[in-house]
Amino acid sequence: MAGSGTAHLRDGDIVMRVENLVMEFPVGRTGLKVHAVSGISFDVVRGETLGLVGESGCGKSTTGKAMMQIPRPTSGSIKLDGLELTTLGNEELRSARTKMQMIFQDPISSLNPRRIVRDSVREPLDVWGRGSKAEREALVDRVLESVGIDPQRAAESRPHQFSGGQCQRISIARALVLDPTLIICDEPVSALDVSVQAQVINLLEDLKKQYGLTLIFIAHDLAVVKNISDRVAVMYLGKMCEISPSDDLYARPAHPYTRVLIDSIPVPDPSAVLADATTIGEPGSPVTPPSGCRFHPRCQFADDICKSAEPILQDIGNGHFVACHHPLEVPVSIQSR
Amino acid sequence: MSELQTEMRQEHQPLLEVTDLRTHFRTERGLVRAVDGVSLTLERGKCLGIVGESGSGKTVLSRSLMGLLPSSNTVTSGSVKFEGKEILGLPSKQMRRLWGREMSMVFQNPMTSLNPLMKIGQQIAEPLNLHLDMSRADARATAERLLRDVRIPEATRRLDQYPHELSGGMRQRAMIAIALACGPTLLFADEPTTALDVTVQAQILQLIGEQRRDRNMSVVLVTHDLGVVAGHTDEIAVMYGGKLVEKAPTSVLFAHMKMPYTMSLMRSIPKLEDPSHTRLATIPGRPPDLVHPPKGCRFAPRCAYARDKCITEEPPLRQAEDPNHSYACWYPVGSPEFNQREAELNSGAVPVTLEAR
């Protein structure tokens, strides 16, 4: 779509279900509002990895934080294991949050620079008073080892003594100690070198199996997202464009915006023909989002209907949904005619 | 000598000629050998990509060439010739004549490299005033034209805006406008797109390429991403542990990479064609400590193809089949020893690194 709709929501063992999420923020005292997220819905099945992609300002990080209720959404429903989070009281919410953890983009600034790394990793256990002191220490050792950090070194060092990739491993360990159901990773590898990026992605894949995790992976690089995700949701200016099993999304991208994102990925092959980037443009303002389909000012296929009517997510088969008036793939509703 | 002859001589002389450049930093821990004997040349109008991980020395190399390092704890040696003149170690008073007019730089993070308290127009006009003695009115008109050149929409309005009012992509365009303002012959772009979205990255790289062709400017593109340099450079230099480990024309490098390090970097990039959950190849370990670099090949401790000789003897930079292609490796990709180890690795017969063996 940039559009709305809930046709793509599933039944079954759902860990996280977001319905019609709206996040708005006031702009100073102007009376204007930033429409960061404007009615998106998605769900994540147990053991699945959902990728959220889009450019800066598309609302992907806001969505990630909204799931943690930081801050509480303007409207919409967010359910973790069937528990509605938006109406929970503060104390109940605090305890529900132990089931969800977040990993952030900048691994060095998301760790307290003045604390011994091991203490940072153990702190969630101390806060919740889990187990005896010895049990906590043993658990911290185990988790640090599973992310590839020497517990001994962690007991003597502060974050600046580790590299960016190691700090990200430490952040992952800190997220793991409370044995969460869901981990929300917000651009966890975009600040890292390609070689380190590969290590962290492989680590997340291993830990997902080992700890039975469900992941939400937020990033702007489609190649990375495709590698780690089972399903991918493409967002644009606070709306959902397309959601699909990740291999199908790359095999037949149906939204013109998805096509643009795929064409922008640098290919490590000098003979590859580079798409002309001059026509890509930049996202509009979330303060005054475009009418109809929010992508229409940048879309080469846009016509009058795109300016006036908001497209709704429709099924194009194989669990693949697109919100576009002129999708690049034929919707099921027309196929059957 | 007639003007024409002078011009012709300049055409044949490389724009930049670097010989055995060493940049070492004095620190409490000892001497950090950040750049340790790098030689390269850059022709006029060409684009050179410098690729490597964090800590490979690529940023220090480009800053050494620009003369942007603090003098207090830096020890440099070797030679950097710009248009035939030695510029290494020139005092900044003299370098200032080159900065802006002859060489300029685009930095990684546009938010921290632009002055947050100064309007965009003033920031572009500043080098025009300073280096070209342009009047205020002329400088403003030129600034507006530059903003159009780098495709910032509504250029006139943007002149009076502050950096925080611009998007990340537009800020980087403004940075490029500042760097281009005085018409430099050499542009350094140090990770110009790392902080940006992929869509904006594609646009910025295309913009740098267009400006290079329009102005017959040389560009040094520094990045950690082989994908970024593939489509936008004529030649690539791969750095590891402060040294140049492979250098070749772009198409030759991608077709016949010799250094296992270059190959490993290449393999760690997630590929769109691969099905999801394809296991990514990684490079185990970390870049070497440049205070105490390994004795032999600096990549050996992390290299899956290393043998005893790699630990004890440092491989020299030698020429490959293509005369413009050189690499520093005892057992390059395609050699019998490499192929043998590759077969062993595939069958799981040997551990991946020498340390583990």
Q: Residue-averaged pLDDT of chain A, rounded?
A: 91
| Overall pLDDT of chain B | 90
Strand order of the largest sheet of chain B: 6-7-8-3-9-10-12-11
Shape of chain A: globular
Domain module count of chain A: 2
Give me the count of strands of chain B.
12
Indicate the low-confidence ranges of chain A by residue numbers: none
SSE order of chain A: EEEHEEHEHHHHEHEHEEHHHEEH
Alpha-beta content class of chain B:
alpha/beta
Low-confidence stretches of chain B: none
Strand content of chain B: 15-25%
Q: How many individual helices of chain B? A: 14
Question: What distinguishing features does this structure have?
Answer:
heterodimer; A: 337 residues; alpha/beta; Rossmann fold; 2 domains; eight-stranded mixed beta sheet; four-stranded antiparallel beta sheet; 12 helices; 32% helix; B: 357 residues; 12 strands; 20% strand; globular
Structural commentary:
- The complex is a heterodimer of chains A (337) and B (357).
- Chain A has two domains: 14-99 and 180-335, Rossmann fold; 117-176, no CATH class.
- Chain A is 32% helix and 21% strand.
- Chain A has twelve helices and twelve strands.
- Chain A has helices at 60-67, 90-97, 117-128, 133-146, 151-154, 164-176, 194-211, 222-228, 246-251, 256-264, 304-308, 332-335; strands at 14-26, 33-45, 49-53, 75-80, 83-84, 100-103, 182-186, 214-219, 231-236, 239-245, 314-315, 321-322.
- In chain A, the strands form two sheets. Chain A has an eight-stranded mixed β-sheet with strand order 6-7-8-3-9-10-12-11, sandwiched between helices.
- In chain A, helix 6 runs parallel beside helix 7.
- The mean pLDDT of chain A is 91.
- Chain B is of the alpha/beta class and 357 residues long.
- Chain B has a domain at 258-346.
- Chain B has helices at residues 3-12, 58-66, 92-98, 110-113, 120-132, 136-149, 155-158, 168-180, 198-215, 226-230, 250-255, 260-267, 308-312, 336-346; strands spanning 16-27, 30-42, 47-51, 74-82, 85-86, 103-106, 186-190, 218-223, 235-240, 243-249, 318-319, 326-327.
- In chain B, the strands form two sheets. Chain B has an eight-stranded mixed β-sheet with strand order 6-7-8-3-9-10-12-11, with helices on both faces.
- In chain B, helix 9 (198-215) links the parallel strand 7 (186-190) and strand 8.
- In chain B, helix 5 (120-132) packs across helix 6 (136-149), helix 5 runs parallel beside helix 8 and helix 6 crosses helix 8.
- The N and C termini of chain B lie far apart (65 Å).
- Chains A and B meet through helix 7, helix 8, helix 9 and helix 10 of A and helix 8, helix 9, helix 10, helix 11 and helix 12 of B.
